[in-house]
Amino acid sequence: MTAHLLVVHHTASPATRELLEAVLEGTRADGIEGVEVDVHPALSATASDVLAADGVLLGTPANIGYMSGAMKHFFDTVYYPVLDAKPALPYGFWVHGNNDVEGARRSVDSIAGALGWSLAAAPVLIVGPVGREEREAAYELGGTLAATLME
Question: pTM for this one?
Fold first, then answer.
């Protein structure tokens, strides 16, 4: 049986793109088997994508103290159609910001919590440039979520 990991992202900057690539590498780490990864930009991901998923990974920049408008659009679009259909859905997320990521973290936690989703890995919160440590943390996040679905 194949598990489906949905990756929803808004990668408007080189830093968020770099983190997405590291997350996706992690989902393909040695030992990860039986997990299909579906990748969608936040503006095109749908409720059907979430309903088909066994887990979700979210990636957003922190914009003006909040998640990106594209990620908010994703949540607005899927909220009611998946509200009762996917309780305890394992999820994880990463946020990149130039100054602060706490508002974006709180907003993602709040909406995912209201959906009843279950945080499967600590969020990766990055302020400033993306270096080796940040890429490794993103890689681990992808690997952890994928491995969670293998169980």
Answer: 0.97
